[in-house]
Structures are given as C-alpha cells and as structure tokens.
Amino acid sequence: MADDRSQERNEQATPHRRDEARRKGQVAKSQEVNSVLMLSAGLLLLTAFFPYLVETTREMLFTFLRAAGDGADAQYRFGAMFQSSLTTMARVLAPVAVGTVAVAIVANVGQVGFLAAPSVLEPKFEKINPIEGFKRIFGKRGMFELAKGLAKIAIVGLIAWSTYRGRLAGLTEFMFAVPAAMLPGAMHMAALFLIRALVAMAALAILDFVWQKWEHEKSIRMSVQDIKEELKENEGDPLLKSRVRAIQKQIASQRMMDSVKDAALVITNPTHYAVALGYDEGNDPAPRVLAKGMNEIARRIRELAREHNVPIVEEPPLARMLYRDCEIGHVIPATLYEAVARVLAYVFSIRAKGRR
After folding, report:
1. How many other C-beta atoms are found inside a 10 Å radius of the C-beta of residue 187?
2. For residue 39, what pLDDT is reported?
3. Residue 59 and residue 257: Cα distance in Å, rounded?
C-alpha cells in the first residue's frame, strides 16, 4: 500500500517539472480565447473601416457597370479593372488583417508568454501511428473537443433562432424593400446576432481556459517517487550527499583536534565549553581560535591539551563568549582583547616562573 501511494501522481509539479513541460510545448492554452479575441478585433476593425469599405465597393461597382455599358471595348478593360479592384480591396482589408494577427499574437503571449519549443516540430512516430491517432480522437481530450465543437454549433444556432424568430413575419416586406431601407435593418440584425454570439463564445472561452488550466496541472502532477528521482538527478543522491557531508565534518574535526597541540592555552567552562587559542606574535594581530567545542568535544580538547602540555585555564564567562562569538580559524574580536590578554599574561607569567 505504501508503494502504491508513492506511485500515485498526487503531488504538485516542481518548478523543474514545469520548465521541462514548457520546453516540450506542454502549456495551458485555450484556443477558444484566441478565437474570441481575434473575432472581436476583426469585427471592431471592420466596423471602424466599414464606411471606407462601402464607399470603395460602391465606386468599384459603378466602374464595372459603366465599363459594361461601353460596348465591345469593355472586355479589354475588365482584366485591368479587376486587378485594380483586388489591389484596392487588399489595401482596404490590410489593417483588419494586420490588427487581427496582432491580437492573435498578443492573446498567445498573454496565455503562455514567449515560448519557443522546437521539440514540438520534431518528427515523431506517434504522430503518424494510426493507433495513437485513434486514442487521441476517442480519448478524454478528443471527446472534450468534440463536445465543445457541438456545443458551439448548438449555441450559435440557438442565438440565431432567438435573434431572428421575432422578425420572421417582416422578412417578406424586408426582401422587397429598397436597398437604402434594407441595409440598416440587415446591419442591425447582424450586429445583434454577433454581439450575442460573442458574449456566449466569451463565456465558453472562459470555461475552456479554466478546464485547460486544470487539465494541464493534472497532466504534470508528480508522484512521491518522481520527486525523489528528480532530487537525485538535480542535486545528487541524498544518502551520498549525507555521507560526503559526514566525511567532510569528520576531516574538519580531525584537523581542528590536530591544531590543539599548537595552542598557547585552552580556556574552559570548565566542563561544558573549551576553546583553544593560538598566538603568533609575528603574524597575528590578536590571538586566533584554533579549536572549540561543547561537552564531548570539549572533553577531547582538554585531553589533547594535557597530552601536549598546553595550559588549561578555567574562565567560564570568557569561555562561553569565545565559543559564541568566534569562528574557528579567525582572530578574536576587539571586545575580548583585554580579557584574553589578562589570561595570556597570567599563563606567560606561570611559564616564566616554571623556568626559574
């Protein structure tokens, strides 16, 4: 049971897992959001350029009609006029196309940021494997996309029916109206339909974005074992690192103990703390901490000091301050100069008396 739980993908993805998925192009992105924003931008731009578009279309139509009434020479001018008309329409619609493409780029960047995933373009056998293709089509994601497409068709159909059902009685009169009276009514109904459709599609896009986000988070979840393996790959085996740290600590401790024999004195608590100080008058501006420790380490420092005839001085307050404020290998702080100097002077005086 414990092994089964460790294999269940219930853990949130780590930053490394998210970066790896992003490099593979696995991001939470809703195509419906892009479609709605592009359609909205296109309609707004068409609305803004509509007067110019209508006027340009009217001028081209009149040009063709006049050419058609000129007789036989008209057929020789239709080719040039048609080419000129295409150029004019392209120039009119270019801002709409460029604006729509710009909105599409902004929508993509807004959802996933700037993303380059070359691995997505790499040829893979799974992409042409018919079995995998059927799995994608009839899998959960494929069925969701199918349901989403059917829902869009149904929503658009319902909106169209609700928009035009109250105007069916007047369609006969509308069909026989003059163009000047027909155009405003047609534009009003089209605008009403498009606004309702856009609102419905926007709601569907929000739901799709939430679902895509949830599905993406679910797809990159990790098991406890996955997290352990990632830690091993990125930071090394925890057991090995622990062993290395233990060996390093042992070596540092041995070096520290070896330096006790070179100490000028050892200041103790007397039992809980021990600090070994060395002083090289020619090189050090002040005494330097060679070793320090508590309890068992302090006992070992005292034993080594006795073996090498290093003086041991019991100064409990000074021993505690040296242990707390000083690092091994560093000189003592200026605030302790006076206290340590008194102890050193005492030790040197004892040595001098011993030599007499």
Report:
1. 12
2. 85
3. 100
Look at residues 34, 56, 348 and name the one whose alpha carbon lies nearest to residue 204: 34
- Per DSSP, 13 falls in state P
Phi, then psi, of 292 in degrees rounded to 5: -155, 155
Q: How far apart are CA 217 and CA 124, in angstroms?
A: 24
CA-closest candidate to residue 92, choices 119, 64, 56: 56
**DSSP string of 83-121, one letter each residue:** HHHHHHHHHHHHHHHHHHHHHHHHHHHHHH-S---GGGG
Contact yes or no for 209/32 (Cβ under 8 A): yes
User: Phi-psi bin for 90: left (phi > 0), alpha (psi -120 to 50), beta?
Assistant: alpha
Alpha-carbon torsion (230, 234, 239, 240), positive or negative: positive
Write out the two tokens for 155.
């929503």
pLDDT at 1: 45
Taking the chain (356 residues) in runs of 10, the rounded mean pLDDT of each run is 58 80 79 86 82 75 64 57 73 82 85 65 57 62 77 84 69 58 65 84 88 86 79 66 74 82 85 86 82 88 88 87 87 86 82 59
Kindly give, in sequence order, each residue whose CB lies less than 8 Å from that of residue 96, ignoring residues fewer than 6 positions away: 42, 45, 46, 49
What pLDDT shows up at residue 2? 47
How far is 150 from 133, CA to CA, in rounded Å? Answer: 21
Answer for the pair 314, 268: CB distance below 8 angstroms, yes or no: yes
The residues, any chain, with a CB within 8 Å of residue 139's CB and separated by 6 or more, are none
Nearest to 263 by CA among 243, 245, 277: 277
What's the pLDDT score for residue 26? 77
d(C-alpha 348, C-alpha 137), whole Å: 91
Rounded-to-integer distance, Cα 141 and Cα 8, Å: 21
* Domains present along the chain, CATH in parentheses: 11-114+124-231 (no CATH), 242-355 (3.40.1690.10)
